[in-house]
Amino acid sequence: MRLEWIEDILAVADTGSMIRAAERRFLTQSAFSRRLRTIEEQLGVELFDRSRKPAELRRAVLEHCEEMRKIADSLRKLRSDLVRGNGGEHTRIVIASQHAITAAIAPILIQAITEPGHIDIRLRSANRENCYTLLLTRQADFMLSYSTDRQPLIFDPDFIETCVLGREQLIPVFSSQDAERLNAAWERRQVPVVLYPNDVFLGKVVRDEIWPRFTADLFRPYAETALTLAALQFALIGAALVWVPRSLAQPYILKGELEELSNTYGTAELTLSLSRINGSRSPHAEATWTMLISCGQTQLSAILD
User: Fold this and answer.
1) Can you give the residue ranges of the HTH lysR-type domain (predicted)?
2) Which of 42, 77, 203, 231 has its CA 20 to 30 A from that of 257?
């Protein structure tokens, strides 16, 4: 049984509510509910009595909570002992990064700090909610993530430290050589677009911050994907309009392969942040944090120039 599973179950036991437990685990209620169902499926055991409203932990689970606390403490101690046995500190830094950031910004940031500092970095790409989880369960030292005014990072500052590295835009792009075809689709009010799922960050940004500026019948769904790199390919081949971070589209815009259409189809401002859990950490991790902050804004500006 994985440590984060135990911590999820104990969060429900301690708060007495899935809603409050989700807040403690820095997840949306829907994402946390899916996590709990996944745990049940993996264990082959129903942990919750869903006939009750709201759902409650079954009595048999509650009876084992103290045992689970001891197991969780033992697993944390084991991890700490293994680290000490490896020279007293982590020699590898793990960064959880949103997929869209991993595709363009993260590699350049990592290159900037590894070449002079000889730092061993592992980059783990996930959606924003799963990046939270990796950070909170200490499977990642840092988290790179986007936020907007309407989709903020909701962290307890006493628990999570966050530093803004810079800002960019989510922009609409389409194949430059097929621009006339897109214009014709606009006239017909049948603009083909690639959708992001509604439960992922960029899906919420497009749905809540960009689309309300237009009439409901303007856009025609062409395909759906959670990956910005996949979405970008639809724009490059002239199949559909997509909204992607400028950092991802910029090389293709400069080469003339993509046309930016912000004046027509709208944008949203994205804030790029670096986050970590407060508390004691290795000198290696502290040095990496400092270097990421010092080079982050410069590197982001270089990408967007």
Assistant:
1) 1-58
2) 203
Compute CA distances 263 → 3, 132, 188, 222, 269, whole Å: 48, 34, 19, 22, 14
User: Could you tell me which residues come within 8 angstroms of residue 79 by beta carbon, excluding any fewer than 6 positions away?
Assistant: 138
The correct CATH number of 91-304 out of 3.40.190.290, 3.40.50.11810, 1.10.260.40, 3.40.50.12280 is 3.40.190.290
Calculate the average pLDDT of the chain. 88
pTM > 0.85: yes or no = no
Residue 117's pLDDT is 53
CA proximity to 146, closest of 116, 102, 178, 112 = 102
Q: Helices 3-15 and 29-43 sit at what angle, rounded to 10 degrees?
A: 120
Q: Give the whole-angstrom CA distance, residue 141 versus residue 275.
A: 9
242 touches 235 (CB < 8 A): yes
Question: What is the per-residue pLDDT across 38-92, written as a single tens digit (0 to 9) for each?
Answer: 888 888 889 999 888 888 899 999 999 999 999 988 887 886 676 566 554 556 8
How many CB atoms are located within 10 Å of the residue 39 CB? 19
Domain ranges of the chain: 3-85, 91-304
- Which CATH number is correct for 3-85, 1.10.10.10, 1.10.490.10, 3.30.2270.10, 1.10.1040.10? 1.10.10.10
